[in-house]
Amino acid sequence: VLALIGLLLTTRRPEHPISWVVAITGVWGAIGGLAYAYAVEALVADPGSLPGGLVAAWFDNWWWLPGLALPLSALLLLMPDGHLTSRRWWPVPAAVAAGTVLASVTVAASPTFELGAAEPIENPLALDIPAVIAAGVVGAILVIGGLGASLVAFVMRYRRSDGDERQQLRWVGVSLGLAVPLFVVGSLVWGVVPGAELLPALAFLAVPTGIAVAVLKYRL
């Protein structure tokens, strides 16, 4: 669905940067989902049946971090016209990008892969050294701080907006306000309440749906 929303936006509004953010996020998520399924088949369900299982498991271990942090920051900073409010906000996406790289390196170097096997599968590229751990801590701080600043920029832009722009930002704000509780509740009851895993999926779809309405501006 996310990829379809990206296809809709890139064909209707190809000049809008947000269209490509949504589309690339959809493709990246599809690749990550396939990597997980491939790794499970190759290493857990039928060990040795497929080549490159460890490569797929390694990619699955870290792909989600840039797939979440970078698009979310971009959407908050660039809505609704695809441009930053002012040049002074450039350090924010730079911090999120740098933090994502550092945190992704740390996650990619974790000791094991969690694929639902009876025993964790060892990561051949594991690096359990202080420098890697420190990079992860710094990366997490940069990502969290950058996302917080992105949200502040969005709120400030909304407060200064009017007319169509305010309507566009309202759609994004409402979808974000719906997505956050869905994601939090789904994460808390995951594996406890049957069907709870659907809530984070709905959360991931809520924001790009609001974005699509805002960008296309069809009967806001």
Write structural notes for this entry.
The protein is an all-alpha fold. Helix content is 72%, strand content 2%. The chain is built from 8 helices and 2 strands, in the order H-H-H-H-H-E-E-H-H-H. It has helices at residues 2-12, 17-45, 53-62, 64-78, 91-108, 130-160, 163-188, 198-216; strands at 112-113, 121-122. A hairpin with a 7-residue loop joins strand 1 and strand 2 (121-122). Helix 5 runs antiparallel to helix 6 (130-160) and helix 7 (163-188) runs antiparallel to helix 8.
Biggest sheet architecture: 2 strands, antiparallel
- The ordered H/E elements are HHHHHEEHHH
How many alpha or pi helices?
A: 8
- Considering DSSP H and I runs of 4 or more, what fraction of the residues is helical? over 70%
Secondary structure: number of strands:
2
As a whole number of angstroms, the C-alpha radius of gyration is 19 Å
Q: Assign an overall shape.
A: globular
Average predicted local confidence, pLDDT: 89
Secondary-structure-based class equals mainly alpha
Q: What proportion strand? A: under 5%
Terminal Cα separation, in Å? 21 Å
Strands across the major sheet, in which order? Answer: 1-2
Unreliable stretches (pLDDT < 50, length at least 5) are none
Helix/strand layout:
Layout (H helix, E strand, L loop, with lengths): L1 H11 L4 H29 L7 H10 L1 H15 L12 H18 L3 E2 L7 E2 L7 H31 L2 H26 L9 H19 L4
Antiparallel strand pairs: 1-2
Helix pairs in contact: 1-2, 1-8, 2-3, 2-4, 3-5, 4-5, 4-6, 5-6, 6-7, 7-8
Descriptors for this entry?
globular, single chain, mainly alpha, 220 residues, two-stranded antiparallel ribbon
